[in-house]
């Protein structure tokens, strides 16, 4: 009978483009079948992990790249080394998100970066120049304050819910201030750069949407779309959605912190991980590389609205950006981006970061103390 | 073969299928969990025996706080469920037109998939678009939007309210059934003696419901102690861990961080606490039963 | 105080008429018993008096005041339920004190009252117990205690003894009678046990299918039942009924014929009955094994020997008519052996074809002068 | 009770009080459904808009139509839920009826301990036992079948079913068993011909609660032990409305209402049964 | 067939001994009634005979065969329960047919049997109804029908009439007696109602606290109770007991003194009783309003007029001893008015300080020769 490659596919249904290429690949590899199992976003990663932990891994799963180290350290996945040519094809820094211990452990399939969106109408109402976005944190805070005080509407949308995105959002601030969480094997988070980011959080909260800890990025985005926040930091999806609203908006690179050496952003990728001991590892790697190869991937990521940022530069992408300049800040940031920190217990890391952010946002702790405490906790998760 | 022997054999024959089934499906994994709690099982392929290490770790951490929070959360939730459920049952017990419909209308929270009910509450709690904050603003009771899940204290109560909402139909139904079991002539006797409706409720209905209340509190306590989906979907234990209960912590440790050993130890602790409640419950009902006649 | 009038009281359940225009007057201090077969509407009537059930038509007056629309407590009545309706979670003390707590009586006065009631009912030792630990008779007394403390004008009892066993029932009967004399309150008592009715009542109200069949003092009902229903209902074993033909009337009474046996029954005659079929009623205890005015030879099919009495059952003729005789305990009798029995004409009752009794010429004052002034008994 | 007796006569202010109380109570119970229903009426674009307006402007029932299109398998999910719940209910009844009978009728050493042990099963949420359970399901080879959801579902619904039915059966006079026993009937015959028919209202209650329990609440087992879309039950099916970036809230809510409608209808017709069956069971303990 | 022996049967519940070495023989075709106060162990004994309860010690033999370990159906018994234990979901036909269905009897034979039983019990019209629609008496007959179809050697009844009202109870008593004669089966019948015991039994077994107090024909127990317990238990109203002093013995009997009144009671004397305290027993029905061998003046505190009789209750002396007299219904009597009552010495019973009766010199064959051969009654 046919040999099968089971694939845990996150989402509600298989993207038609993926469906098309699965067919194509199966056609080229007789005797092989790809069996995608569609699992909702909220559970797909846990499901892949549970299956692996129980000893019946799927061949391939869609996972956040930040989990790769954990899987690798626990000997659950196989490395997926890239050739130099393959590495080169990606935007800079992207391969780093799946690299650990000198080799690659997954194939990037989805990628997102963030940019600053602002509401020109609100800027106008607040007496700000609607065409001038903030360039620095100080400006960002000041603008937010002015919007809040002049219009009564929140100047900024800060997501700080107990959710992975809260950590991501904060990492953007860290990376726009030249900060670092971990350097090799050393926790270096307790630094002035990171402290400044946390302090900026504290400063902007009073002018942000009430109850930051109740919202994650999509909820904050919805508030922005409703015209109830002056600025947000968001991915490409917001641009697509904004087009359907009456809001006059703009998009710019993320504002920078005092210690910034240039633009920056957090590079978040999702990858296809190939699980060990399924007997079809070789073929799964082959398929994974096929489905993420420039052709299929390019078609997939540029559909728009999905909130993805292209992984690789290509003429098509350039065309795309020309047609829609909103993409420019999203793609430009990649060059200065840093990967998600890789931890053995990334959930532990994530929880510690969330806790730190929330304690500052809710005023429960002073930034310096919160940072020190979190840095200490991180030791056990690396 | 004596009569007693044969009935014993029969009793066990009748019980065997269910006992076997539950043993295989529940007891076996349970023992597995218990053993796991003494190991450092994780995603790693190898596991080592760590003795009571996991338990020590639990008590060296912030778990004490979690335990206390769990108890407070559970106590409030169960108490409010009982109060609202009994109140609802009393209302639905009144012989007024339409009560059959009203009774049906109390059941949806029980029928709807729990996650959906929680999503709906999530909507209600939303500060910007939700019903509660919205209506309160419209009525001028609050100034700006209030995100109920954003603040430690409101999130704590919001999760309790949702838990209450899910548990109330069962409590109401059970209390209603118990109320209908109170002999009508007791009410008539009291009425003849001049006792008003409220007085009758306070002096007759309520005391007679005590055994049913204890039973229901117990069942509801077990469910509440293990209440997971509500907190997980609404707040994931946040903000600042202010809604992290034992079961959330257990899930986060075991499934989130894949520390199966430590998670199992937490699960075992939950079982121990619940067992203590159960034993207390059986004691109390036993005493009640012997206190009343027979 | 304590006087009750029912004026044309009717009760419908849907279209079904349970009580059909009841007319009754109960004097203050009287002990009135409602009897009747199961389902005749006794409880319904009592509950209407209590105010627990609605009155469809007619008026209920207590001390001359229309109370139809008053709640029970405002009517000045107290009710003892068949099931006692004791509160299982309260002590005996609290059960008895309940009505006083409702009216917020001060603690010391309340205590005195409850203890007084407990003394009357011999419950002093039980005050701290819960009803579940009491015997049937004790529970019954607690229920009465709860009624007493309110000092109602009228006590209502719905078959209060029917849950007790025979011996206890006999004891409680006597205690209730004593209580009545002690409290001198009006009491209305429902039962379907005619022994209870006979022994306790000043006056019995016999109900049949929603109507009052007869009202009167116990012995009046026994000696002068107004109709066959009452005649059959009162007295145990029940009265024997024999179909007779009227042969003539005279000053001495009505002459009847039963299978050739003739006798003149001393009752007030009526016109136009000669030649018609009447019913002769004879109580089992008035049948003797010596010849009488009317002599019947019977073959007992069942003989019950109770020691004090011997009850013989026989069938007269093929119609399956049962004939029952209560004879002295010492009588020598065997089943399936013929025996001659005699009846005195003066002991007989006579009913027309509608079951209405002919007035008997029996002087009740011979038995007890108090009978015609029951309240003084 | 064809006619209210006097004690059930309410004065106007009592009626007002009672209806106010019911209103208050039902407001609490139904508010989220009102919110959910309003959400289902609003076009996705209008969902997130403030200030809050109770009545949806240009609301429509469109979501109730599009939900079938955007998740084509939804009818199948409802069917699966029905199917799985029916099998679970039957299986639970088959296991529970004999045990409840045994618990109700025989007192033997350890019987109350065993009963307590059954109750204790309620203490372990499936989440805690997930991984060992998974291994077990795998060794049974039932992963990715309907049985993957049925087998654990049955186990966790047994305890409360036993508890309920036992109390109900304890109210059936013991003389009925004894009479049958004297007449030579075996226990099985007695159970089948005498106890079962009499316990029918109690069994109905157990069946309803079990059915609802499995219809709406089986989530985690379905998620973990089954990978086949065609076997997924309703709660999982509802998650299909969670897109990559966007939750299709209006369709999700519409689908929830459609999905629970069958169960609501069942409850509506059986509510009298439910309360009275519980009444009988509730009297002692 | 149908003969039962209990040989040293004992029953413990835990350490509590409910039945203490019961020795009893029941002849084929006999109607034996177990009576005794509540809790004395009647039901337990019956259930042990049925095989529903285990026997702790001793042997139960049916037709000479030890059946201790046999299930009920193999013992050839059928039982009628106090609650009837009818299956509410089956028709009367199916209820009666139940035992036959169990033994898988062919349909036509089954039908014939059920219809035969229904005819005997006058249930032909009710076969298609469910028990819920029947009256108490009809239900009772269905329960009996279910027992009849099995054609058992021994019928066991546990208080089958206690749920019925008085009138029905009287009717059913007679029907049961007839049924017994018709079926000629052994019947064992438990009741705490002594009227039932007296009227139905060939032989009564009086149980008291787990022991047999006396066994004998009904009138034997009435006239010659072996001890005070039986004397007080049999007869209604219960026997009056008076403390007397023994003044001497003679051939004529024992001379006793009660407050100065002397009489010689015709009983078999014993040695060493002179000067001691004995108990004199007098049944209420043996007290008359004419002077007798013993004459007492009483003041009735309660008078119950039952029509056929008048029962007067009085207290003798301060000890609260109750004295009860059953007088004719026509007697003229008032409460709180003194009346002289007389008792014949021949009617009296005498008991020693242990409550054991002195043998009375009364010739029972005067009453009924069959009494000493009860099976022939
Ligand atoms: N709530 C009701 N609805 C309809 N009919 C009723 C109701 N209550 C009583 N009845 C009917 O009214 C009649 C009289 O009932 P009631 O209880 O007064 O009888 P009873 O004389 O007290 O009988 P018993 O001696 O059995 O207590 C009966 O035929 C009964 O069926
Ligand atoms: N299962 C049991 N366990 C312990 N004691 C019992 C049990 N069944 C009966 N007894 C006790 O045995 C004694 C005899 O009970 P039994 O039921 O035989 O009395 P009875 O003579 O039938 O009384 P009644 O007239 O009230 O039916 C009682 O004291 C009772 O408490
Ligand atoms: Mg009645
Ligand atoms: Mg008994």
Automatic annotation (TrEMBL), chain B:
Protein family membership: Belongs to the binding-protein-dependent transport system permease family.
UniProt name for this protein: ABC transporter permease
UniProt entry keywords in alphabetical sequence: Cell membrane, Membrane, Transmembrane, Transmembrane helix, Transport
Residue ranges of domain ABC transmembrane type-1 in the record: 67-281
Membrane topology: Multi-pass membrane protein
Transmembrane regions listed in the UniProt entry: 7-31, 71-92, 104-124, 155-177, 208-234, 264-284
GO biological process: one example: transmembrane transport
A GO cellular-component term linked to this record: plasma membrane
SUPFAM superfamilies linked to this entry: MetI-like
Family matches, as InterPro entries: MetI-like, MetI-like_sf
Localisation per UniProt entry: Cell membrane
Superkingdom of origin: Bacteria
TrEMBL record, chains C, E:
Gene Ontology molecular functions: ABC-type maltose transporter activity; ATP binding; ATP hydrolysis activity
Pfam families referenced in this protein's UniProt entry, alphabetically: ABC_tran, OB_MalK
Predominant cellular place of this UniProt entry's protein: membrane
Keyword terms, alphabetized: ATP-binding, Cell inner membrane, Cell membrane, Membrane, Nucleotide-binding, Transport
Membrane topology value: Peripheral membrane protein
Top-rank lineage group of the source organism: Bacteria
GO cellular component: a single term: ATP-binding cassette (ABC) transporter complex, substrate-binding subunit-containing
Subcellular location: Cell inner membrane
Transmembrane residue ranges: none
InterPro entries in UniProt: AAA+_ATPase, ABC_transporter-like_ATP-bd, ABC_transporter-like_CS, ABC_transpr_MalK-like, ABC_transpr_MalK/UgpC-like, Mo/tungstate-bd_C_term_dom, NA-bd_OB-fold, OB_MalK-like
Coiled coil: none
Entry's family note: Belongs to the ABC transporter superfamily.
Name recorded for this polypeptide: ABC transporter ATP-binding protein
From TrEMBL, chain D:
Residue span(s) of domain ABC transmembrane type-1: 78-270
Gene Ontology terms describing biological process: transmembrane transport
Membrane-spanning segments: 12-34, 77-101, 113-134, 146-165, 194-216, 252-270
Organism domain of life: Bacteria
Keywords of the record: Cell membrane, Membrane, Transmembrane, Transmembrane helix, Transport
UniProt topology in membrane: Multi-pass membrane protein
Cellular location(s): Cell membrane
Keyword Transport: yes
GO CC annotations on file: plasma membrane
The keyword Transport is annotated on this UniProt entry: yes
Similarity-based family: Belongs to the binding-protein-dependent transport system permease family.
PANTHER family per the UniProt record, alphabetical: INNER MEMBRANE ABC TRANSPORTER PERMEASE PROTEIN YCJP, MALTOSE TRANSPORT SYSTEM PERMEASE-RELATED
Protein name stated in the entry: ABC transporter permease
């Amino acid at each position: 009978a046919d040999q099968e490659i089971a694939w845990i596919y996150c989402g509600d249904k298989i993207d038609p483009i993926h469906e098309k290429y699965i067919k194509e690949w199966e056609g080229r590899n007789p005797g092989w079948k790809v069996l995608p199992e569609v699992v909702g976003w909220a559970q797909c990663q846990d499901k892949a992990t549970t299956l692996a932990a129980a000893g019946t891994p799927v061949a391939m799963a869609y996972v956040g790249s930040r989990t790769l180290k954990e899987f690798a350290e626990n000997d659950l996945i196989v490395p997926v080394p890239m050739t130099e040519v393959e590495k080169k094809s990606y935007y800079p820094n992207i391969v780093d998100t799946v690299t650990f211990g000198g080799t690659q452990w997954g194939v990037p399939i989805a990628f997102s970066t963030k940019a600053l969106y602002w509401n020109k109408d609100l800027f106008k109402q607040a007496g700000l120049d609607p065409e001038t976005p903030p360039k620095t944190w100080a400006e960002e805070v000041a603008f937010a304050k002015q919007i809040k005080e002049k219009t009564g509407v929140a100047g900024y949308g800060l997501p700080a819910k107990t959710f992975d995105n809260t950590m991501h959002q904060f990492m953007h601030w860290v990376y726009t201030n030249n900060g670092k969480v971990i350097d090799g094997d050393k926790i270096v988070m307790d630094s002035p750069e990171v402290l400044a980011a946390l302090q900026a959080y504290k400063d902007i909260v009073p002018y942000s949407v009430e109850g930051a800890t109740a919202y994650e990025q999509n909820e904050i985005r919805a508030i922005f779309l409703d015209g109830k926040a002056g600025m947000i930091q968001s991915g490409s999806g917001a641009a697509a959605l904004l087009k359907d609203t009456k809001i006059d908006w703009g998009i710019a690179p993320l504002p920078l912190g005092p210690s910034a050496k240039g633009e920056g952003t957090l590079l978040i990728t999702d990858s296809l991980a190939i699980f060990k001991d399924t007997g079809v590892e070789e073929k799964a790697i082959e398929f994974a590389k096929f489905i993420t190869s420039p052709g299929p991937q390019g078609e997939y990521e540029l559909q728009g609205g999905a909130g993805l940022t292209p992984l690789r530069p290509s003429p098509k992408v350039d065309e795309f950006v020309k047609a829609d300049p909103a993409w420019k800040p999203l793609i430009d940031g990649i060059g200065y981006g840093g990967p998600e920190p890789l931890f053995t217990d990334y959930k532990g890391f994530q929880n510690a970061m969330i806790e730190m952010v929330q304690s500052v946002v809710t005023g429960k702790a002073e930034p310096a103390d919160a940072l020190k405490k979190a840095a200490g906790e991180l030791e056990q998760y690396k | 073969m004596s009569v007693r022997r044969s009935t014993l054999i029969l009793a066990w024959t009748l019980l065997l299928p269910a006992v076997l089934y539950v043993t295989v499906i529940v007891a076996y994994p349970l023992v597995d969990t218990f053993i796991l709690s003494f190991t450092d099982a994780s995603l790693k392929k190898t596991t080592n025996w760590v003795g009571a290490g996991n338990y020590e770790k639990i008590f060296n951490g912030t778990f004490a706080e979690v335990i206390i929070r769990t108890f407070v959360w559970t106590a409030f939730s169960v108490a409010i469920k009982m109060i609202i459920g009994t109140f609802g049952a009393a209302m639905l017990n009144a012989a007024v037109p339409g009560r059959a419909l009203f009774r049906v209308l109390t059941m949806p929270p029980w029928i709807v998939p729990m996650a959906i009910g929680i999503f709906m509450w999530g909507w209600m709690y939303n500060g910007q678009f939700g019903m509660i904050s919205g209506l309160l603003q419209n009525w001028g009771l609050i100034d700006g939007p209030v995100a109920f899940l954003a603040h430690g204290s409101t999130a704590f109560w919001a999760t309790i309210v949702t838990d209450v909402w899910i548990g109330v139909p069962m409590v109401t139904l059970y209390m209603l059934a118990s109320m209908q079991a109170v002999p009508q002539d007791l009410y008539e006797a009291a009425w003849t003696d001049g006792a008003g409706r409220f007085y009758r409720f306070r002096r007759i209905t309520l005391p007679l419901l005590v055994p049913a209340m204890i039973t229901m509190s117990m069942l509801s306590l077990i469910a509440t102690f293990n209440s997971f989906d509500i907190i997980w979907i609404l707040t994931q234990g946040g903000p600042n861990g202010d809604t992290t209960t034992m079961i959330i912590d257990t899930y986060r440790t075991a499934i989130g961080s894949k520390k199966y050993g430590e998670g199992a130890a937490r699960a075992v602790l939950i079982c121990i606490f619940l067992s203590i409640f159960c034993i207390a419950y059986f004691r109390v009902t036993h005493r009640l039963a012997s206190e009343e006649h027979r | 105080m304590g006087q009750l009038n029912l004026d044309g009281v009717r009760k419908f359940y849907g279209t079904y008429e349970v009580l059909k225009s009841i007319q009754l007057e109960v004097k203050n201090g009287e002990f009135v018993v409602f009897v009747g077969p199961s389902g005749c509407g006794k409880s319904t009537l009592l509950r209407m008096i209590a105010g627990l059930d609605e009155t469809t038509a007619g008026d209920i007056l207590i001390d001359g005041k229309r109370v139809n629309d008053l709640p029970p407590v405002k009517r000045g009545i107290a009710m003892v339920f068949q099931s006692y309706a004791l509160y299982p979670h309260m002590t005996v003390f609290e059960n008895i004190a309940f009505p006083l707590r409702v009216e917020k009586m001060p603690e010391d006065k309340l205590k005195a009252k409850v203890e007084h009631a407990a003394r009357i009912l011999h419950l002093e030792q039980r005050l701290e117990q819960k009803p579940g630990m009491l015997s049937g008779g004790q529970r019954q007394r607690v229920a009465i205690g709860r009624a007493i403390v309110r000092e109602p004008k009228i006590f209502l009892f719905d078959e209060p003894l029917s849950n007790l066993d025979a011996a206890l029932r006999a004891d409680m009967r006597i205690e209730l009678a004593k209580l009545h004399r002690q409290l001198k309150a009006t009491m209305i008592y429902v039962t379907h046990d005619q022994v209870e009715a006979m022994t306790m009542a000043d006056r019995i109200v016999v109900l049949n299918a929603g109507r009052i069949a007869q009202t009167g003092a116990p012995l009046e009902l026994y000696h002068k039942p107004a109709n066959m229903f009452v005649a059959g209902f009162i007295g145990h074993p029940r009265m024997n009924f024999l179909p007779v033909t009227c042969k003539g009337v005279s000053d001495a009474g009505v002459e009847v014929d039963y299978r050739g046996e003739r006798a003149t029954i001393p009752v007030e005659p009526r016109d136009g009955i000669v030649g018609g079929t009447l019913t002769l009623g004879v109580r089992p205890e008035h049948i003797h094994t010596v010849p009488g005015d009317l002599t019947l030879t019977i073959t007992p099919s069942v003989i019950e020997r109770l020691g004090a009495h011997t009850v013989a059952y026989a069938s007269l003729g093929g119609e399956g008519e049962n004939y029952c005789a209560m004879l002295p305990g010492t009588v020598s009798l065997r089943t399936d052996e013929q025996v001659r029995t005699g009846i005195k004409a003066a002991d007989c009752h006579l009913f027309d074809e509608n079951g209405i009794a002919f007035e008997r010429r029996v002087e009740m004052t011979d038995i007890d002068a108090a009978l015609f002034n029951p309240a003084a008994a | 009770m064809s006619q209210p007796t006097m004690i059930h006569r309410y004065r106007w202010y009592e009626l007002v009080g009672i209806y106010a109380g019911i209103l208050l109570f039902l407001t609490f119970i139904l508010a989220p459904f009102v919110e959910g229903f309003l959400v289902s009426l609003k076009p996705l674009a209008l969902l997130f808009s403030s200030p809050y307006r109770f009545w949806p402007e240009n609301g429509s029932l469109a979501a109730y139509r599009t939900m079938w299109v955007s998740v084509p398998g939804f009818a199948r999910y409802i069917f699966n839920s029905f199917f799985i719940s029916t099998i679970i209910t039957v299986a639970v009844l088959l296991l529970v009826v004999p045990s409840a009978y045994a618990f109700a009728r025989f007192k033997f050493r350890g019987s109350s301990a065993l009963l307590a042990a059954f109750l204790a099963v309620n203490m372990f949420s499936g989440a805690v036992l997930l991984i060992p359970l998974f291994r077990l399901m795998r060794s049974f080879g039932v992963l990715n079948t309907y049985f993957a959801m049925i087998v654990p579902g049955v186990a966790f619904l047994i305890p409360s079913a036993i508890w309920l039915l036992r109390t109900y059966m304890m109210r059936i006079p013991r003389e009925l068993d004894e009479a049958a026993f004297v007449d030579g009937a075996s226990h099985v015959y007695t159970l089948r011909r005498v106890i079962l028919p009499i316990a029918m209202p109690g069994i109905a209650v157990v069946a309803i609660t079990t059915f609802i329990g499995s219809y709406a609440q089986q989530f985690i087992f379905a998620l973990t032990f089954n990978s086949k879309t065609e076997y997924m039950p309703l709660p999982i099916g509802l998650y299909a409305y969670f897109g990559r970036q966007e939750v299709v809230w209006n369709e999700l809510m519409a689908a929830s209402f459609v999905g629970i409608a069958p169960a609501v209808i069942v409850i509506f017709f059986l509510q009298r049964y439910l309360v009275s069956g519980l009444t009988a069971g509730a009297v002692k303990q």
